[in-house]
Structures are given as C-alpha cells and as structure tokens.
Design goal:
Layout lengths: L1 H11 L4 E6 L1 H12 L4 E7 L14 H12 L3 H12 L2 H4 L2 E2 L2 E2 H16 L4 H13 L4 H8 L4 E7 L7 H10 L4 E6 L5 H4 L1 H16 L4 H5 L4 E2 L5 E3 L9 H18 L12
Parallel strand pairs: 1-2, 2-5, 5-6
Antiparallel strand pairs: 3-4, 6-8, 7-8
Length: 272
C-alpha cells in the first residue's frame, strides 16, 4: 500500500508531498517514508503504533466487553453502538448538541453509513488485521526516516483504547530529533473530537517545514500544555516496560513470526 501511494504521487506528478496518515494509514505512511524519504516534505502520524503486538488494545473489562459485542454484531445498529464506544470518549459522546446528545446524532450517521456500504466482510477484516499484525519498522528504516531531514509530528489521543498512547510515544522517541509528540484529549478518532487542535498541529508542521526549521530545533521545543489540553513535547520520552509485560511481548512476537509465514488473504474480484 505504501508503494501504491508512491505510484499515485508519480501519476499526479508530485515530486514531494506532506504525508499524513491515521491509524493503519499512519503505518502505511511510515513505510512510504522509509522506502522514499526523498519524496516527503514532512510526516504526520496520527494514532499510530508500530504494528504487531502493539496492535493489541489495552486489555480491561471495557475492552473485553467491546470485543465480545463486536464479534456478535450482526446488524448495522449493533455494530454502530460498538464503533461509537471504540472511536470516541464517553465525555464527547455525552455532550449535548441542540436537543439531543452527540451519541444519538453519531449513532444515526453510523447506522446510515454502515447500512449503505454493508458490514465489513470477514475477508476484508482478516486482511486488515493481517496487514497491521505483520507491519514492522526496522531500525534501518527508522534511521532512514530520522536522518532524511524532514520534520515529523506524532499526534495521539491520550484516551485511545485501540492504539495505545505508550506505543506512539515509543515511536516518537525512536524518531528523535526529527519528531515532536503532540498529545491531545480524545480517543482513536481524536481528529473528530479535537479538529482544531489537530489542524493546528498539522499547520505548525507545514509552517516549520516552509521556514526550513532544523529537526533539532523542531524537537527542542520545551514541553508545553496548551489551553485546549494538548501536551506538546519534543524531548525524548522514556517508556518503560515491566518484566511481566516483557514476557507477554515475547509471546506476541512468537505469534507474530507464525503469522508472517501465513499466506496473504485472497480477495476475489466481483464482476458486475
């Protein structure tokens, strides 16, 4: 998919571009930056992880309940209820908009959207999971991105239960001095919850690029908490891991090696 994005740039005649990706799209953006760093003006990664075991959400009662309901969802109405709780914070959903809550408005939009496109097929879901699980950024690839000279912003919702904040921080740390971490109040679709803050972070990145700000200057910005609750930090962020977590990670890595040798999911073409 990163090669597809590069081919599209070639088709459009774009020699360079500001690249921005969200979630799995951010993983694709990382790969694009690694295979063609000379084609990027800047890189913005929103709600990103490093793939593999990092794709596992935080395991707690809420997530187990959501996973159970997700697997049992057979109708657009059932799927919409799960998606809302997965994508947004409860605080955002409970906000009053006019005479009803945002949850009610979004629920109607989700049901309408899912009904018009249909539920995601099992084949599509398996393909998406396989792509995220087998995604991996090697040290060599990260070195290529970090040393390419363009600026990077890692933007993340601190309440994201799908892509955990700690993994985004770890990636940002590995991309220092080119990377700046922007932490916002919000969940996986933080760009919906905090559009102004996300847009401001993107514009700051583009403006800094146009002003030829050096990576060291970009990441040297002192830690700052804005009035909107955004935590902006360019300093290295140390992320520690407990021993028991390390054992779990080793198990996930073993599973990951098994998945790597599996054949890709075949998607059949449908003739009209």
């Amino acid at each position: 998919m990163a090669k597809d994005a590069l081919a599209l740039m070639d088709h459009l005649g774009w020699k360079k571009a500001h690249v921005f990706g969200h979630s799995m799209g951010a993983m694709i953006s990382c790969k694009l930056a690694a295979i063609a760093p000379h084609r990027l003006c800047s890189l913005a990664l929103l709600n990103v992880t490093g793939g593999g075991f990092q794709c596992f959400p935080k395991v707690d009662g809420q997530m187990l309940s959501l996973a159970f309901r997700f697997l049992r969802a057979k109708t657009p109405e059932e799927r919409a209820l799960v998606d809302l709780e997965t994508h947004y914070t409860k605080e955002y959903l409970d906000e009053t908009v006019g005479s009803c809550t945002r949850r009610m408005i979004l629920y109607q939009e989700y049901v309408k959207g899912i009904s018009s496109t249909g539920m995601q097929s099992n084949c599509g879901f398996e393909g998406q999971v396989n792509a995220c699980w087998t995604h991996n950024m090697t040290t060599k690839e990260l070195d290529a991105i970090r040393s390419a000279g363009f600026l990077i912003s890692v933007i993340h919702g601190r309440d994201d239960i799908i892509a955990q904040l700690c993994h985004a921080k770890r990636l940002a740390e590995r991309l220092v001095p080119a990377a700046r971490m922007v932490e916002l109040h919000g969940a996986h679709l933080v760009s919906h919850e905090r559009p102004d803050e996300v847009n401001n972070a993107l514009m700051d990145l583009i403006k800094a690029t146009k002003s030829a700000v050096k990576p060291e200057e970009w990441s040297a910005q002192p830690e700052n908490v804005s009035e909107t609750g955004a935590l902006i930090s360019g300093r290295p962020i140390t992320v520690t891991m407990r021993t028991d977590e390390g054992v779990i990670v080793m198990g996930f890595e073993h599973m990951r090696n098994i998945v790597k040798v599996m054949k890709p999911v075949r998607v059949a073409a449908i003739e009209s």
